[in-house]
Amino acid sequence: MALAFRSRFSTLSRACLFLLAAASPASSLQSVTSDARPADEAGLTPRALLGKRIFEDKRLSEPAGLSCASCHDPAKAFQGNNGSPIAALARGSRPDSLGARKTPTLAYVSFSPRFHFMKKKDEETGESELVPVGGQFWDGRADDLVAQVEGPLVNPREMNNPSKAAVVDKIKAGPYADLVRRIYGETIFESESAFEKLARAVAAYESTERFHPFASKFDDFLRGRDRLTAEEARGFALFKDKKKGNCLACHVGEERSRRPQDWLFTDFSYDALGAPRNFAIPDNKDPAHVDLGLCGREGLAKAAPAGFDLDSLCGQFKAPTLRNIAVTGPYLHNGVFASLREVVAFYATRDTDPARWYPKKDAATAKYDDLPEKFHDNVNVKEVPYDRKPGETPRLDDGEIDAIVAFLQTLTDRPAPADKAEK
Questions:
Q1: Residue 381 and residue 354: Cα distance in Å, rounded?
Q2: pLDDT tens digit string along 42-84?
Q3: What does pTM read for this prediction?
Q4: Domain 217-422 indexed as CATH 2.40.30.10
Q5: Cα-flanking dihedrals φ and ψ of residue 31, to 5°?
Q6: CA dist 145 → 36, 111, 206 (Å)
Q7: Using CA atoms, how far apart are residues 242 and 257, in angstroms rounded to an integer?
Q8: Contact of 201 with 183, CB cutoff 8 Å
Q9: What CATH number was assigned to the domain covering residues 3-211?
């Protein structure tokens, strides 16, 4: 994806955040005082504070016991699985319930634009095509952060509430109902827009700096406060090299910029990687079960341009940010890879040594075994490092894979000084 597009994209994202900040509560509500407020609530606007209370409220599941933070643990870059016996899937509020995909991190999600289609220019051919961008979740089914809040709360596999109204009733009967009234008015709980306003509070919290602190070693390197080791610097060079890692094709950054905000390490686009099937996922015990990703997104036909070939999107999933990637495993939408090195090696050797990654079927390698054969042409085989064939030399050797992994480890946000002091 062209860097010119990425620059415009970053500008758009920052503009959206500015508008969100401008919509903060009136000055009379700029501080909420309470002797009982935890230290980690200092500095939050009233609406963001409300969002935090909702985000951490374990009463809001059915049965009670599961909060948003249970699967989006701040100590794990707002990702996790709530103690699930299957690492790839989060455990829901009911003991026998598991999610359908690996829990995505909520770190840096506020920079993602609303789901839409836009023109992408091929740098080599100069031709343009329409591609999907943005939204929330692996398949972009929530247009924005506000819509994202609803999904887990009413999903039977997750927080299992029967309706949005049930969530509102629980908050109305809870310990911070007065805070809700102070922000939105005395009649808020009788309003048809109550759930949406509560969701906006959660979105406001997820848009605060604690979800995007830009506090990694790499950020300090950009600011001139730290240096990369020789191995990390080598990995960074390979990461950017269009004939080696070519990672900037999806996990973008503005190469001429030293501003951390210009290095989000995602362009919020979608790609079909042909991930191996994860047989640890219970749903996959049924051979007929497939996760088609973006083409199964609810409302896609309405969101897509007229006449767009929706089948061409089957197998595509959203490119996640690589920030905090070293602590947010397992990897890919189905959590099939346990280690960061494993997933980088998959990118490098998927096409040169497919037998390493896919099972045998009828004495042949069942490549792209988690995607129906009719959609195999959707898998990205054009961009580096996927442009190889069996037996050819991979774009990256083992030492280069190790170097990229070393670089990726510099993207982990360091704890804030106050957090260190508490420990």
A1: 13
A2: 899 999 999 999 999 999 999 999 999 999 999 999 999 999 9
A3: 0.89
A4: no
A5: -140, 140
A6: 29, 10, 8
A7: 18
A8: yes
A9: 1.10.760.10
